[in-house]
Amino acid sequence: MSMAKQDTDTVRGLRGLEDSSSSVRLRAALAVGTAPDPRFIGKLIERCAIEPEFHVREMLTWALTRHPASMTVPGLVDELRSERAQARSQALHTLSKIGDRQAWPAITRALLADADDEVARSAWRAAVVLVPDGEEAGLAGVLMTQLGRGERETRLSLSRALIALGEVIMPILRAAMTDADPRVRAHAIATERLSRDPDAGFEFAVEEAKRVVALGPAGQEE
Fold first, then answer.
1. Could you report how far apart the first and last alpha carbons of the chain are, in Å?
2. C-alpha distances in angstroms, 103 versus 20, 53, 57, 70, 130?
3. How far apart are CA 187 and CA 180, in angstroms?
4. What is the pLDDT of residues 52-95, one digit of tens each?
5. Nearest-5° Cα angle at 112, 109 to 118
6. CA 123 → CA 82, 87, 115, 174, 214, distances in Å?
7. Which residue, 1, 26, 131, 215, is the most exposed by fewest CB within 10 angstroms?
8. Residue 146's CB: how many other CB atoms inside 10 A?
9. pLDDT digits (tens, 9 = 90+) for 151-163
10. What is the tally of helices (H) and strands (E) in the chain?
11. How many CB atoms lie within 10 A of CB 124?
């Protein structure tokens, strides 16, 4: 392929990623992922920060995962300092899909406690994927500070992240089950129930937790 043809295809691809039609943007991202080209990495990351359509964002993330991590991770880590919540959230989501643990130092306590629920949820998922062996307990301790936060989806995301860390969460989780804040207690109890019986579902675990909190210590199972 001639250099001129490559340049023309690149310009067309970059324009496609910015097209007003979501279907065109989707096809452009698919094309970039199918034939990875480092010249698109910056635009893919830039587009992740502002793309309004979920399915297009997912394709942008997929396209980024098709490129070498050494080329994508630095740019994604830079996005974690963005003032735009979507930029932080999508960068975290993409880092979790890439799974390169060299990104771990960028998953800060500030991101794990981000004021934006979507950013925090993405940070929890990324942290569980990227945490180095032996540092799970420290991560669990930070995640526990978020118990009781948000609505159902946020609480479920946190429970799943904690459970994914394994048995290391249990001592801290049991302590949280006696927290002075009833929301923290209920969330901790629901998480413990869900860890023991994943098939029961989160709603069942939450209802059980509410019952235990309402009954007080007498409602705790041995």
1. 71
2. 33, 26, 20, 10, 7
3. 12
4. 999 999 999 999 999 999 999 999 999 999 999 999 999 999 99
5. 150
6. 14, 12, 12, 23, 32
7. 1
8. 23
9. 999 999 999 999 9
10. 13, 0
11. 28
